[in-house]
Amino acid sequence: MASVLTFTDSGIYCPAGNFHIDPWRPVPRALITHGHSDHARPGHTTYLATDAALPVIRRRLGEISADGIPYGERRRIGAATVSFHPAGHVPGSAQIRVEVAGEVWVVSGDYKTEADGLAEPFEPVPCHAFISECTFGLPVFRWQPQPMVMDDIARWWAANAAEGKTSILGAYSFGKAQRLMAGLPALGPILTHGAVEEMTSILRAQGYRLPDTIRVTPEVTAKTHPGAIVIAPPAALGSAWAGRFGPSGEAFASGWMAVRGIRRRRSLGTGFALSDHADWDGLNTAIRATGATRVFVTHGYTAPFRHWLETQGYDAGIVETRFTGDDAEEAEA
Amino acid sequence: MKTFAALFAALDSTTRTGEKTAVLTAYFRTAPEADRVWTIALLTGRRPKRAVNATELRLWAAEVAGIPDWLFEESYAIVGDLAETIALVLPPALGTDSPSLADTITALMRLTGQTADTRRAAVIDAWATLPPVERFLFNKLITGGFRMGVAQGLLTRALAAATGVEEATLAHRLMGSWDPARTRFDDLIGGDAGGDARPYPFALASQLDAPPETLGAPGDWLAEWKWDGIRGQLIHRPGAFALWSRGEELITDRFPEFGPLSDFLPDGTVIDGEIVAWGGTKPLPFAALQKRIGRKTVPKTLLASAPAHFLAYDLLEDAGTDLRAAPLSLRRARLAKVIAALPPGLPLSLSPALTFDSWDTLAATRATARSEEAEGLMLKRATSVYHAGRKRGDWWKWKLDPWSIDAVMLYAQAGHGRRANLFTDFTFGIRDGNELVPFTKAYSGLTDAEFAEITRWVQTHTLERYGPVRKVPADLVFEIAFEGIQESPRHKSGIALRFPRMVRWRRDKGVADIDTIASLRALLRTAPEGPSAPPDLPEDI
User: Fold this and answer.
1) Which pLDDT score is estimated for A23?
2) Residues of A in contact with B419 (CB under 8 A)
3) Of the candidates A3, A51, B76, B296, which lies 20 to 30 Å from A13 by C-alpha distance?
């Protein structure tokens, strides 16, 4: 019997349904887990994603032929039945379940197990084989609960404001930025970089509950908005764009900030370890909860994580990807 | 450790020197006395005797974390810091309180010589009870290598601000072999702690990159060889005879040849100079001295084959008077007088001043440095005082241009500290017939952006993994610069380089364009002979 999913040069492929999942080369039919650019690539003939994920995907890819699907709805494609289930990574993100002749495989996409109050919370999906990301698949990555990290960020923001400094927080434009604005207490105005505001307005229009934000324009300064926090893409940190705010505290919110050397390399004094990916315990819990006996790992520390799963009794393999986990240090994490 | 942990967190959360100085100054005003002394000790590279070794530490950590040893090692390779790796893999730190820094260190020192069970129990208990930052710092106290982003100058500036004692005076008072466990803060700051053998802070030179003409009139400068040895400070005071390395290590006993100098040098003499292995009229290649570094006792054969000699270039104290504020020309004259008064046959001589009437003449002299066993020239302004540390403008090192060769990357390994999770340590190969022979490693010389790009390339082009080492296709070519080359039976290529580093990534070249072992061997014939030197020795000037 053929495998439910196979791994090709274009990405993960389902022979029974003749479709790909998050392919990186143009294909006739692509099922997309979420809108980050290493998963939603341009050039496919047709797209299928959750209704919640589509607005961002459309904005990023322009004119595409795309179909939306609600979470949990089963759809027949060829000899396969597919459904999308919350992955908790960013708003609209999904794991994709594929069933062929009674055998169930699940592609996790990116996921995190902690509910962040914004993205649809992760749900374990029972399966025979699970394809799991493992961006942070080493035991040094263990996240603090979100409320503790938000408290730390709020303290930093308040301390900056007390010293007359603007707080500039680096965060990926889609997902992390909105998670932060939704999770932080209302200590002052929230200013946004254009790239962040674009994603924020899309999500706000979809009905996600987000606080008021002010897009940074030439007239927006530290004088007009004292005590503000500015949420901007990481690349804006230390840039001329950030310089307009005068005295400021800069920080970066990312899982990578858990490692001091990585933080220091960015010449950033302050980093907050807040990730939209599962940590070590999250990965292990999620994998166990699927009941799968076969696990394929992708994105990240795949070699040691696969070895670890084998010692835990799993039949484990690696799915090569064009996007490595460490790339995510520069992309989203 | 609460106050110390707060200090660490504050220093670690800023990259601004002004903020660091302010934080450190406040700490030195308010922290408990014993903690202040230990903090100075740690920031100046002094540390408590190691009570637990690194192997034990990682085994216990893996055990408490419930992970296999190999997974701990994989994690360490990514984090790049042992103390931090341990702090991260352990179950969450739940403690809220901790003993003071001094008490923590005292308790650690008491563990020395205890049974493994006792030490293990004490360490595991500390891990379970300390708050997160303190747990990391506790590990750091054991593993050593405290880098808190505080340079010596910043430390003395903060201490000066906190105590009102002038910076240069403080820098001198912090030198020497004071024991943090037995030293009172006031004695240290007041200058009563360093003992009779306390050295002066070494004056350091900057690299001359501009043409020497930019320095002005040649007559204003003293030129001498830049010796390729170990920088040292020789001290003879009543009741004290000591030889210090530039790293403030007391190395008197490693060079017994200098013992007789204590009978002949006048009391109250401090000389700055270079320790070299002596060939009778000029130094032996550095490799000869290399064999003596790290040896606490020296066998007779080595004393005969690599006799130590002190090439003196400055006089810091004469007849008990601190001469450092006097101009170099005067210090040199006095130094010549002191040396002239010595009986012949002692292993001490004046590092000669090179005569020159124009920069062109001097450049010609510099070109012959290799045959003099020198790395180039030192240029010192005749009117200059003896600075504490590196003050740009008065002392320059004008080194020979390095040799260079094009080689291909064969293996890559992730770095440590701020290079964690970044491939920065490369092994290079050179062509030998149809084969590529690994011949050197290099770690430095590229920009952060280049390292990041190479890291992504390594991740997507790994052929094989050997633990933390990745084998990669022989595609990326780099120009490798180095200062010296020697035969080495220990290396596969039969060759060892001195100070190899990458000078540029040759994107324009492929593996077909790299140099051959024959071209390297040709350099060997022009180089002085000698056995191998490890590639990564720190520079002493």
Assistant:
1) 95
2) 261, 265
3) A51
